[in-house]
Each structure stands twice: as structure tokens, then as C-alpha cells.
Amino acid sequence: MADLETVSEMRNPTADSVSASSPFSARSAYVHVPFCRSRCRYCAFYSGEPLDLRDTYLRGVESEARAWGAGSGALDTVYVGGGTPPTLGAAGLGRIVDALARARGIARDAELTVEVNPGQGVRPADLRVVGFTRISVGVQTLDEGWLARLGRGHGPDAALACLEACRRAGFATVSADLILGLPGLDPAAAADWAEGCVGAGADHLSVYLLEIHPGTPLALDAAAGRFRPASAGEAVAQWEAVAERLELLGLAAYEVSNFAPPGVRCRHNQRYWDQEAHRGLGPGAHSFDPGAGPWGTRWENRPDLLAWVRAAAAGRAPPRRVDRRTRDGAVLETLFLWARRPVPWPTAALEALGVDAARAKPLLACLEAAGDLTPSGRPTAQGMLRADGIARWLWERLVSGIR
After folding, report:
1. In percent, how much of the chain has pLDDT > 90?
2. 10 Å Cβ neighbour count for 51?
3. Dist. CA 90–CA 94, nearest whole Å
4. What does the pLDDT read at residue 17?
5. How far apart are CA 175 and CA 180, in angstroms?
6. In the predicted model, what is the mean pLDDT of residues 200-216?
7. Which residues pair with 208 in a beta bridge?
8. How would residue 183 be classed by pLDDT, with cut points 50, 70 and 90?
9. Which helix (H) or strand (E) segment is 387 a member of?
10. Distance of CA 389 to the CA centre of its chain
């Protein structure tokens, strides 16, 4: 997420607020659950609120959903993440689904995703009963030693058993998260982890590089010399080994961190990458309205549970940070999200932002000659791994023509 934060810095923050019943008709909702029973040593996500506030939180979600109100069409993707959603229990998660169904409606063929960790005491079958169709399991590694170093509360066997239970429960998609960029990790071992997840029932993998965030226990270890971050070369070798193994198993990279057969791709995440409208509920949740302001507007509910609850109960917009995108920021974000996926050059989106297609043509030819693009203009594996640099390089050469 570091690159998206860089884009955010280029926007113009304002003190504007967006009404609790914003009229935009997003058909995707993200709900952030700010609770965990324990915190991983690398985690910088907003979580860790007292568990005795769970019912207060659920009432807040119900209030915020009511304030959002009806839009033009039922929701067709919902993603409940965190934090650790199963800390609410199946019944609590069912309350979230019911609140969204009452406020907006949920389409018959909707994709409803919930994040879980192995060994949390909530049966996958119960999550299926309350309406979830897709489940994302935080496996992270299949190595006992690495799980302990990262502060995970489960072992490899529990992770595989969880994937198997999710598959038996009848979820349409079972996704597994893995962490790469681990120092000293044999790329072949990383590929074996990925294959192990597929063998246990996963048909989608999200593969992330370990990031060291300031203030986390892992960052303190790194500063004290107790943890050596992986080199860029190590991270690339691990990713390439995993990508090659998954390709053989029928799971292609449809985004640099996500692998699946064509019919199993995460519809909700594709909304983000296509810069389509989405609404976030809960403290710390993010929303995007492409129709607000000339270049779209993002906002984040402040990560403050009690302030958010008070506002939601009163029908007011919770405290928020609002970013109205600049055109330059929108161009950079469009380039960045394109470069992370093997998709065609986004001609229409860039032309709408004032980018001259003819100006891009020689630049794309350079990238193709370097092996970063296919002849059809789609990023290659090498190009996706270099997405940050490619997006910045193109941006610097394209935005001067629209200023």
C-alpha cells in the first residue's frame, strides 16, 4: 500500500465532509472490523479495540448502513475484513450482512467475502450459513518457525485444516494469503507453500511481500539488528517461484499479488483496481466516489471506534479525512493500477484525464523493448514487478502535457 499512500500525498486534503447518506450509488461495500484477539508482529492495520465493545460496534454498523440508505441497485460485492472478523462470531457477522441487506439490498449472485484466520473457533460452515460466498484465510506461511517469528497464533497443520474445512463448507471461492519477502527463504519452499494451499482446497491465492511498518514489533527488531529484511533480489526470486508453480496449477497472476483461474478472480478487489465506486463502513474504512469533484473523491473514516459510534448513532457522518484527487494524482493512480495487472493500456481512462494517446505511444514502445510489456501493451510478469517505477516513469513524461 505504500505506493497508494504516495499517490494520496499528491491530492489536496480538504476539511469537506461527505454526508452520512451520500447519494452515490456504490454497489460494493467494505466493512472494517477493528478487533483482534492478538496482534501479529508485522501488522499496522487498525485493530486491537477492546473486545467488550463488539456489540457497540455492531450497533454502529447497523446505524451507518441505515444512514447510507438506498442506492440505485443492490450491492453485488461485500468484503468484511479487519482486524479479525470472526471475533464477532458467526451471529455478529450475520448482523452485518443483514444490516446491508436491509439498507441497500444484496443481489442474488453477489460475492460476499469474509477474512478469517486458522483456529479461531468459528466454523466455516456457520459463516456460509449467514450468507458469505467467499472466504479468505490468513495462512501467511506453512513453516512453524516463520509463523512464530511473525506472531501468528496457528501452525501449518491448522492452516491446511482450515482451508479443507472451508472447501467442505461449500464456499464458491476459498482464498489463501501468503507472505513472501522473508529473508533467507528458499524460493522452492515458498512455491511448496503455495502448492500446499491449493492441495488443501484454495483456488485463489493472494501473495504479499512483508512490509516493515514503523512502530511494529518487527520494525523494532529490525532497528535493533534482530531482524534482517529480505533483499529485493530475494523477494523477486520467491515471487517468481510461486508464480511459476501456480501457473502450472492453473492459477495465473491477474494482478501482481493475486492468482486465480479466470472464473475465480475477486470481483470486489477488481472494483478497487478499476477505480469504481465503493463504500466503506466502520472506523478506519475507506470509500471512493469517482463522481464527486472533477477527478473523484476518497475519504477515510477516522480510526476511532467511539467517535465513529457516536456519529453513526446520531445519523451524522463520522469524523473523516477527505481527499479530493487532483488530475495529476488521478493519472498516477491510473498508471499504477494498470501496471500491476496484465491488462491493456487504459486509453479511455487516461484520455478522460487529458492524456494524449499519441504522446504515450513511444513510451510504451520503450517498455515493450525492455521486456516490461507484451506487444499488445499488457504488463509482463517483469513489468508487474516493476509497477511502481514504471508508473512513476510514465507519469513524469505524460503529465507535463496536461499542465
Report:
1. 82
2. 12
3. 6
4. 40
5. 16
6. 95
7. 179
8. very high
9. helix 387-398
10. 21
Residue 169's identity, in one-letter code, is A
With a CB cutoff of 8 Å and minimum separation 6, the contacts of 369 are none
d(CA 136, CA 175): 5
CB atoms within 10 A of CB 244: 13
What are 103-113's pLDDT values in tens digits?
999 999 999 99
User: Residue 24's pLDDT band (boundaries 50, 70, 90)?
Assistant: low
d(C-alpha 316, C-alpha 337), whole Å: 33
Q: What are phi and psi of 294, to 5 degrees?
A: -65, -30
Q: Give CA angle at 44 (298, 317), nearest 5°.
A: 35
Q: Which amino acid is at 192?
A: D
User: Rounded to an integer, what distance in angstroms lies between the CA atom of residue 342 and that of residue 379?
Assistant: 5
A 10 A CB-CB count for 347 gives: 12
Q: What is the DSSP letter of 326?
A: P
d(CA 308, CA 316): 9
Q: Which helix (H) or strand (E) holds 194?
A: helix 187-199
Question: Where in the chain are the domains?
Answer: 25-272, 327-401
The pLDDT-based confidence of 141 (bands split at 50, 70, 90) is very high
In whole angstroms, how far apart are CA 329 and each of 274, 275, 335? 15, 13, 10
How far lies 154's CA from each of 144, 151, 159, 179, in Å?
9, 9, 7, 15
pLDDT: which is higher, 244 or 218:
244
Are 94 and 130 in contact by the 8 Å Cβ rule? The answer is yes
CATH of domain 25-272: 3.20.20.70
Is residue 8's pLDDT more than 60?
Answer: no
Number of helical (H) and strand (E) elements in the chain, helices listed first: 16, 13
pLDDT for the residue numbered 1? 29
CA distance 157 to 119: 10
